[in-house]
Amino acid sequence: xxxxxxxxxxxxxxxxxxxxxxxxxxxxxxxxxxxxxxxxxxxxxxxxxxxxxxxxxxxxxxxxxxxxxxxxxxxxxxxxxxxxxxxxxxxxxxxxxxxxxxxxxxxxxxxxxxxxxxxxxxxxxxxxxxxxxxxxxxxxxxxxxxxxxxxxxxxxxxxxxxxxxxxxxxxxxxxxxxxxxxxxxxxxxxxxxxxxxxxxxxxxxxxxxxxxxxxxxxxxxxxxxxxxxxxxxxxxxxxxxxxxxxxxxxx
Amino acid sequence: xxxxxxxxxxxxxxxxxxxxxxxxxxxxxxxxxxxxxxxxxxxxxxxxxxxxxxxxxxxxxxxxxxxxxxxxxxxxxxxxxxxxxxxxxxxxxxxxxxxxxxxxxxxxxxxxxxxxxxxxxxxxxxxxxxxxxxxxxxxxxxxxxxxxxxxxxxxxxxxxxxxxxxxxxxxxxxxxxxxxxxxxxxxxxxxxxxxxxxxxxxxxxxxxxxxxxxxxxxxxxxxxxxxxxxxxxxxxxxxxxxxxxxxxxxxxxxxxxxxxxxxxxxxxxxxxxxxxxxxxx
Lengths: 251, 281
Prior knowledge:
Chain A is α/β, with parallel strands linked by helices. Chain A has helices at residues 40-47, 80-84, 86-90, 95-108, 124-137, 154-171, 182-188, 217-227, 231-237; strands spanning 2-11, 14-24, 29-33, 55-60, 65-68, 142-146, 174-179, 191-195, 202-207. Chain A is built from nine helices and nine strands. A six-stranded mixed beta sheet of chain A has the order 5-6-7-3-8-9, with helices on both faces. A three-stranded antiparallel beta sheet of chain A has the order 2-1-4, covered by helices on one side. Chain B is 83% helix and 0% strand. Chain B is built from eleven helices and no strands. Chain B has helices at 2-37, 46-58, 62-93, 95-110, 113-124, 129-152, 156-164, 169-207, 212-221, 225-254, 268-280. The longest helix of chain B has 39 residues, at 169-207. Chain B is flat and about 70 Å long. The two termini of chain B are 33 Å apart. At the A-B interface, strand 5, helix 3, helix 5 and helix 6 of A face helix 7, helix 8 and helix 11 of B.
C-alpha cells in the first residue's frame, strides 16, 4: 500500500501541490491526470523519494518500487541485456542469474533480436521497452510511471499500452502513473485522480468498474466524453463548454 | 535483402578507399613532375626519397630512431595524462579547485610549445629530457580540459535514474561516471597524441641528439633534402601506424557503444498490422 496523507509541496512561494491524499492498493492502477502545472510529476517524485514533501507524509509499504521515466534513461554504454539487468546488478544478483532474467524479459518484450544492441541503435519504442524491462527485472510490486509513452507515435503508444496491460495482469503490479492524456488514463487506470493546476489539488476521483481487458475504443471514448462533461474536470483542464474544444484566448 | 544492403555498404567503402588512394597517387605524380623542374637539392623525386628510405631501413637506422621518437612522445604524454586527468576530475568535482587551477591552465595553454623548448633547453640541456618535458607541458592542458568537461557533464537524469533504482556508490562510479568520463577523454587522448608527436619532433630538431627530429636537423646541415624527405615520411608513417594499429582498435575495444551501426530493423509492418487489426475489431 502506498499512502499519501495531506501532502503539500512548494517551490519558493509557489505552492505546487496542496492537500493531496490518496492510496494505491496492491495490484491497483492509479492514474494521476491533469493539465500542465498540476504537480503530477512532483507527486511521482515524492512517491519515489526524489523529493521530500514540505508537509504531510508518504508511506510506502510495497516491497520494491520501480520507476519508468518519460525518457528511457538507459545507459548509452550498456547493451539491452545489461540495461535491463542494471537494477539486479545493484542488488548483487550474480551475473549468470541476472543475465538469464534479463534474457527472458527481453524475449517477453520483443527485444530478443536486439539483446546485444546499444541504446543508440534502437528505435524510441524499443528503448522504452528496455526501460520497461529494467523496471520489471527487479521484481517490483509498485511501478511509478511518468508519461512513459508520450514521446511515441500513436501506433507505438497503443502497442506499448497493450503490452503493459498484459504484463500488469501477469505480474499483479500496482501502478501509479502520470498522464495528461485522458484516454490513456482511462485505458490503463483503475482509478483516475484529476488534478487542478497551480496549485495541484485533487478535484475529481473516478473509480471505474470496467476491467482493463473490457475497455475497448467505444468504452474509452464514452468515458472520456463523460469525464469532459464533469464540471470539476472542465474547470481543471480549462475546456470550454460551448464547442467542447480547448480554448486558449491569447496566443 | 540484408546481404544486399551489406554488399552495397561494402562497395561504397571500397570506392571510398579507391578515391583516397587515387588522391595519394595524384600527389605523388605532381611531386614527380615538380622534381623534374627543380634541382634535387630543392626537391628530390619521390623515387630518390624512397631509395634513401630503403637504404636507411637496411642500415637499421629507421626503427631505432622511430622508437626513440615514440618514447619521447608517449613518455611526455604519459607524464601529462595522469596528473592532467586527475586535476581535471578534481576541478570538475570541486568548484574551488576549478577556480584555482583554471587560470593557471589557461596561461599554460597560451604558451607556444616552441617557447617551452627554449626553457627546457636551458633546464635539461641537449638530450631526451627536453622533448619529453615539452610534450608533457604542451599536452597537459588538453587532458585537463577534457577531464574537467567529462566530469562536469555527467547526465543528471541518469543519476536520478540510478537513485531510483538504488544503485550503490561503487556502481555509480563504474557504470556511470567512468564510462562517461572515458567517452570525453578518448577524443582528447587522440588529439593529444597527435600534438605529442609533432611537439616531440620539433623538440628533437632543436634540442636532442636522437630521434626523427634530430635526424632531420642533421639532414638540414648536410643539405640532404632526400634524407629529410625520407625522415618526414617515417614520421608520417609512424603516426598513421600508431593511429590505425593502436588507437582505433583500442577505441573499438573500450567503446563498442560508440560504433556506428545501422538502426535496428523495426518490425514496423507487423506492428502496423497489429494496430490496424485492433482498430478494425
